[in-house]
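Sample intake sheet
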Amino acid sequence: MFYLASVSPLWIPIASFIFVLGIFALIVGSSLVETILKTRRKREILRYHHEQSLVAYEKGLTPPELPAEVLKDLNSTKKHKRMGDSYGNLFWSIVLLIAAAGILFYNGGLEYIRRNEDSLLFFVVFFALGVGNLVLFFVRRKQGKNIQEDVKTTEEND
C-alpha cells in the first residue's frame, strides 16, 4: 500500500512541476501540430491552384478561382484572430491562481506567510500574474466581440 505520508516532502513540488510541465507540453504540442497541418494543407491548395492557373494561361482559358476557405483565411487579419482567441489567458489565469492557492495552503495558510517573506513574495507574484491574465482575458474577449461586430457590419455593407 502506498501512503502519501511516506513520500519525502522534497518530491511533492518536483512531481507537481513535472505534472504542470507535462500538461503545458501537451497543450503547446497539440496546437503546434494543428498549426503545421493547417499550413501544409493551405500550401498544397495554393500550389495546386497555381499549377492549374499556369495550365489555364497556357491554353488561353480563364484560371480557376481559389476555394472559399482559402480566400477566407487569406482575407482575415491576424489581429482579428488573435483578439478573438483569448482562452489561453483564461487557462493561464486559472493555473496561476491555483498555484497561488497551493502556495498559500501548502505552507500552512496566512500565518506562515506572514512570518516567511519568501513565501509571501511567491504568493503575490503568482496571484498578481493570475489576476492580470484574468483581466486580460475579459479585455481581449470584449475587443474580440467588437472586432467581430465590425467585420460583420463591413460584410453586410459590401
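Comment: The chain has a mean pLDDT of 76. The chain is about 85% helix and 0% strand.
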